[in-house]
UniProtKB/TrEMBL annotation:
Residues 81-328 form the SAM-dependent methyltransferase TRM5/TYW2-type domain. Pfam families: TRM5-TYW2_MTfase, Trm5_N, TYW2_N_2. Coiled coil: none annotated. It comes from Halopenitus malekzadehii. One of its GO terms (cellular component) is cytoplasm. PANTHER family: TRNA (GUANINE(37)-N1)-METHYLTRANSFERASE, TRNA METHYLTRANSFERASE. Residues 50-66 have a biased composition (Basic and acidic residues). GO terms for molecular function: tRNA methyltransferase activity. This is tRNA (Guanine37-N1)-methyltransferase. Keywords: Cytoplasm, Methyltransferase, S-adenosyl-L-methionine, Transferase, tRNA processing. SUPFAM superfamilies: S-adenosyl-L-methionine-dependent methyltransferases (SSF53335).
């Protein structure tokens, strides 16, 4: 049977697959095929493909995919689950229902070593949460993202796989040999790929275990010679890097505004800040823009290059990013 497929270079395959998945355009009932360095991703309809990819659509005859057994097949309903490496995360208040889902996950074809249930919201300045381990031995796992792998323990560090596309967007802007400063680095999902893109990276985090994982992840991905990992409050170490950065990542959306004075001190003569914020949908970008301009003061011209909604955070609240270029006066 002839099926429309997006054909792109194999190296772009994962990034394009994610874009198609976000557009709900992937035809999951067919196998993805690779031929002569080109990967062909079956899609539901040409019109569902993002416009920038439509010229890459060709007709192919892919093999039907054998449908794996899912937790929904075993339960009779579609549970709310999320995968992080080989850990499956459940979010259920009812303990019996959570145990039922865990059993179905382990009996399905979902790759899984541990099933956990959220036992608390994100808490404290280290932004971690408590977990109930429903089945399996622990909460440490390896997450793979755009060709990099990250060892982490979800009970000891904050990590969101949902931000993979946003992280990749930022990393694609990195130039070789630039200086990049990640102010809230976690286990390195920005720092490691930025270093792999050729940047010299300084990565800071208040969570000592996150910095330990970051150093291990830098080694795993072969970029430990390009990353300086620092445990501590970036406001206390920023003076050591005054005027150094060409690029700054500020992914602490609830309180990044409290660190803007430090970011401006770290910024070089021409520096892009990726500033993450959470604001009401009525004015998602205004407060961040105002805060950055106030912090830049008379020392820099602040030019907003991109205003982007990353995701919905809560009813009427949006997680957003502003890419702002600071140019010294």
């Amino acid at each position: 049977m002839t099926v429309p497929c997006v054909g792109v270079d194999r190296e772009r395959g994962e990034a394009v697959r994610r874009r198609l998945a976000e557009a709900d355009a992937l035809a999951g009932e067919y196998d993805i095929d690779v031929e002569d360095g080109t990967i062909y991703l079956p899609v539901t309809d040409r019109d569902a493909v993002p416009e920038s990819l439509r010229e890459s659509v060709v007709d192919r005859d892919p093999e039907p995919r054998e449908t794996p057994t899912t937790p929904a097949d075993l339960l009779g309903y579609d549970p709310s689950i999320e995968r992080l490496g080989d850990v499956v995360i459940v979010d259920e208040a009812d303990a019996d229902r959570a145990a039922e889902i865990a059993e179905a996950v382990m009996n399905s074809d979902v790759p899984c070593a541990t099933v956990v249930n959220r036992a608390s919201p994100i808490e404290g300045e280290l932004r971690i949460r408590r977990w109930d381990v429903l089945t399996g031995d622990g909460t440490e796992t390896v997450h793979r993202e755009y060709g990099h792998e990250f060892l982490l323990d979800i009970a000891e560090v904050y990590f969101s796989p949902r931000l993979a596309t946003e992280r990749h967007r930022v990393v694609e802007q990195v130039e070789p040999d630039e200086h990049a400063f990640d102010m809230f680095a976690g286990v390195g999902p920005y720092a490691v790929p930025m270093a792999d893109a050729g940047a010299g990276v300084v990565a800071c985090d208040l969570n000592e275990r996150a910095i330990e994982y970051l150093r291990e992840n830098a080694r795993r991905n072969g970029v430990d010679d390009r990353i300086t990992a620092i445990h501590g409050d970036v406001r206390e170490v920023g003076d050591d890097w005054a005027g150094w950065a060409d690029r700054i990542v500020m992914n602490l959306p609830h309180s990044a505004d409290e660190f803007l004075e430090t970011a401006v001190a770290i910024a070089g003569d021409d520096c892009v800040i990726h500033y993450y914020d959470i604001q009401h949908e009525d004015d998602p970008f205004g407060p961040g823009r105002t805060a950055i301009e106030r912090a830049a003061g008379d020392a820099y011209d602040a030019t907003v290059e991109t205003e982007r909604v990353v995701r919905s955070y809560a009813p009427h609240e949006l997680n957003v990013c502003l890419d702002v270029r600071l140019t010294s006066r």
